[in-house]
Predict the structure.
Amino acid sequence: MMDLLSVEGVSKRFRGLLAVDNVSFRVARGSIFAVIGPNGAGKTTLFNIIAGMFAPDRGSVDFAGERIDALAPDEICRRGIGRTFQLVRPFPALSVEDNVVIGAMLRRHDPAAARRHAREVLARLDLFGKRHQPASALTLPDRKRLEVARALATEPKLLLLDEVMAGLRPAETDRMVSALTELNREFGLTILLIEHVMRAVMALAARVLVLHHGARIAEGAPAAVVREPAVIQSYLGAEAVD
Amino acid sequence: MTSRLLDGISHRGVALLAVLLAVLLAAPWIANDYLLTVLIIVLYSAYTGQAWNVMMGFAGQLSLGHAIYVGLGAYAAAALYVHFGIAPWLGLAAAIAVAVACGAIIGFLAFRFGVGGVYFAILTIAFAEFARIGFDHFQWVGASSGFFLPVANYTRNDLWNLRGDPTMFYYVMLALTVAAFALCHVLLKSRIGYYWQAIREDEVAARSLGIDTFRYKMYAAVLSAGMTAVAGVFFAFYYNNLFPEQVFHISRSIELILGPIIGGIGTLFGPLIGAFLLTGLSEAMQELLSALGFDAPGAKQVFYGLCLLVVVMALPGGVWPWLAGKLRVTRRDP
Ligand SMILES: Nc1ncnc2c1ncn2[C@@H]1O[C@H](COP(=O)(O)OP(=O)(O)O)[C@@H](O)[C@H]1O
Ligand SMILES: [Mg+2]
């Protein structure tokens, strides 16, 4: 069983609009896989289907050898898929630490144990020093980090990251890239990320899927994908290829 | 257990709690009869406010019909006592069971079918109104002419049958208030309390972290209903008469939630502080008015309205968060 996640012929329509159009791909266990494409390409919708927010109109999603496309979001998380939201959704009135403690409680029912685990995760994402602040006080880049920390605290096998580098400075992007690389190497965490920051995609992903108008237009190693004419035309623009 | 109970409260906070408890324990020796009855009302409001707070303050589900649980608890225990001679402490089990069943039905209907926010609040009002109208025609418990418990002059306090003087009722209500406070404190520090707060803050995010939001909202609805029913049993045996028009009336549901709103929704001390402020100040005001020779019906309602206005304008989080900051009673690192 090499593939942790397998998406087969998935489509999703919002009234007239075909947001995801017959998309198939597989994510190997222990790999980092990126989804790129212009705004409105259907990337977030694809994530929401995997995470159980929407049922697909057609197609199937298999995780760790079991079909999950009819399951509720909380059940999918319990099976081992953690996700972030592109439009961040912290628990605003709670402290940064308590946000993460709630994630950690999925696998650790004892609050003290959950708190210890939460602090390790916070340290990993450079949020330890801000753990007592209310989540509502964080800047947007920190809220993105908090999204990652909270999802990570549920100890997923597969982590879905929706544009978590957006708004980060280059140095911060590099920190996030190395944090994710460490998680991947140390724990074999499989990561599926949507990302516009090509520098992060190139550094992290072994494979890239390119979506346009909901459909797959390319898939392969990042270096190869960014040279495909269809990708350059629809998304990257000629200057991005060097 | 004691360490768990005092988790997250600073030494100053513990000291303040101890002083407060000591004063409340000594109150029957210090206070006159009138003050004691006021204190009973204060504690009753604090207790019911705490019960409502579990649902709204912790889990974020706005109930505007909590009088239904007071009423069901009151009628259940009173009916068992009057018709079958069953003591209130046994009747309590039936009272809780009936309220829990009702809370579960309302919760199931709302949470299974995604009824939230204002619509949930309206659903709770509707149920309380159904109950009011239903009990108005429920002959077995006196219908609209009221249901009465036998009152006699008791030579001694009968705690088992809850027949006795105000001092006995005072201590019963104090014990209930302390128990509710301790229970809520422990719950808030455990997994269920964290999950409730997650649901209150953002239900979609909570689900994405593996929380079965339906189940945890049901826990809140059922626990809050059961706790409130206990107050209903007290109400029946303290006042000895029940009228559907009074116990189930929406104004009762509103009165019940004013304390925690003024004290601070979602805080442990809010219902307590709110009850003291509202009941204490409104009684003081009425005393003052009658001492000055004014007879002002409705003054209490106007006063409640003013209190609410002041708090909403000046301290939107309630009195407690502001007061806690002044007193430095919350601890950061548990
Ligand atoms: N819940 C929704 N209801 C209706 N339309 C939606 C919804 N979510 C996304 N869409 C539409 O689907 C298309 C794809 O959106 P999205 O998946 O967010 O794209 P991306 O993440 O690639 O920018 C967009 O046209 C968007 O407006
Ligand atoms: Mg998106």
DSSP finds nine helices and ten strands in chain A. The longest strand of chain A covers residues 3-14. The longest helix of chain A spans residues 170-187. Confidence is low (pLDDT under 50) at residues 238-242 of chain A.
